[in-house]
């Protein structure tokens, strides 16, 4: 149903803002002063710092797995449930380092990609292959917001029921990932048509149902092989463990990861305004279709961790490490001021953004 909504929305003659007398997203010109300032004011903070990345990722994973063990082992249901929530939030932060892996220079953090995959990506059935080579398409100048963008849906132009369906489908993601890695990928070794289908349709963390992934090549293809092998062996081991431990540990773990996936899907709902109707956009238009939720919003680091509270700024500076985005935002805000294009992408929090999105879906078209 959502796939048909995408088709209908992208065939609509105009977006909601255009109907209200504002220019369409695709017609917004670039603010060259803002783009120049974003580059010039942040050169000295553009290097990823291993002393920040490694402890943050390792601590998030350690807390997440310890809390997950509590959720599985504790007898008190309330204590187990609380432990499960802590696990979901901590593992959510650990998982979102996959976003950083797609942008940092390959030589910036030696061993970090391997370490993250070994400790987080493969155990949670989400190796970095599912995002690398995909997310960068979302940042391509001519792809963002179009039918070729794997991470864009015109949600603001769709029906109101699309939003809860979009969020709740994430709950099934861990179960789908388990089937993919334990069954479909191994079967694809002996059934080439299935292998091609799984890669094209089910190997990317994409939300655009029309996206089809191209076959991997070169060094990336070799990395994919080892990551798929490791994830499949782990997935089969998880299923085999039920013969010794029963189904409860695995179901609890999958439920925790389901909550993690739901948190990410909620964040995705407010990462952009989702108001583009399918045409190519300028960098400034892409920025204004994206969202910053800067301080003093207190809960934002929980639902938009690892720098994702500055998602609009990230679209101006995709390679800026997450630990520098707060300082970059402060510099640009001070330099450009409040009555500027830069300030227009900042919002107060999750609730106002959700209210705006829901209101957009209810506008007559």
From TrEMBL:
Residues spanning the membrane: 52-72, 78-98, 110-131, 165-191
Molecular function in Gene Ontology: oxidoreductase activity, acting on paired donors, with oxidation of a pair of donors resulting in the reduction of molecular oxygen to two molecules of water
Keyword terms, alphabetized: Membrane, Transmembrane, Transmembrane helix
GO cellular component: membrane
Listed Low complexity bias regions: 9-20
Domain of life: Bacteria
Ranges for region Disordered: 7-27
Domain Fatty acid desaturase: 77-334
A GO BP entry: lipid biosynthetic process
Keyword Transit peptide appears in the UniProt entry: no
The protein, known as: Fatty acid desaturase domain-containing protein
């Amino acid at each position: 149903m959502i796939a048909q909504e995408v088709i209908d929305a992208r065939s609509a003659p105009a977006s909601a803002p255009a109907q209200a007398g504002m220019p369409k997203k695709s017609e917004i010109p670039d603010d060259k002063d803002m783009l120049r300032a974003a580059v010039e004011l942040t050169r000295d903070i553009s290097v990823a710092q291993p002393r920040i990345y490694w402890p943050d990722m390792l601590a998030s994973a350690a807390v997440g797995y310890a809390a997950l063990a509590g959720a599985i082992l504790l007898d008190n249901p309330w204590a187990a449930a609380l432990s499960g929530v802590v696990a979901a939030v901590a593992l959510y932060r650990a998982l979102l380092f996959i976003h950083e892996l797609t942008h940092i220079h390959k030589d910036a953090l030696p061993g970090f990609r391997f370490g993250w995959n070994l400790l987080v990506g493969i155990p949670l059935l989400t190796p970095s292959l599912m995002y690398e080579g995909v997310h960068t398409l979302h940042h391509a100048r001519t792809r963002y917001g179009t039918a070729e963008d794997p991470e864009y849906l015109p949600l603001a132009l769709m029906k109101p029921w699309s939003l809860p369906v979009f969020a709740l489908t994430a709950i099934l993601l861990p179960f789908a990932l388990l089937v993919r890695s334990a069954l479909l990928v191994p079967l694809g070794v002996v059934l080439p048509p299935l292998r091609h289908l799984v890669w094209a349709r089910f190997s990317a963390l994409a939300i655009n149902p029309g996206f089809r992934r191209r076959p991997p090549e070169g060094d990336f293809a070799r990395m994919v092989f080892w990551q798929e092998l490791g994830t499949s062996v782990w997935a089969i081991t998880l299923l085999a463990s039920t013969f010794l431990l029963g189904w409860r540990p695995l179901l609890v773990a999958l439920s925790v990861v389901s909550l993690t996936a739901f948190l990410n899907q909620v964040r995705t709902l407010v990462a952009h305004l989702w108001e583009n109707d399918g045409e190519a956009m300028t960098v400034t238009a892409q920025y204004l279709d994206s969202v910053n939720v800067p301080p003093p919003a207190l809960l934002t680091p929980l639902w938009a961790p690892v720098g994702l509270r500055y998602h609009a700024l990230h679209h101006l500076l995709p390679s800026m490490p997450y630990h520098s985005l707060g300082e970059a935002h402060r510099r640009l805000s001070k330099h450009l001021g409040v009555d500027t294009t830069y300030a227009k992408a900042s919002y107060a929090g999750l609730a106002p953004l959700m209210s705006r999105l829901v209101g957009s879906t209810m506008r007559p078209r």
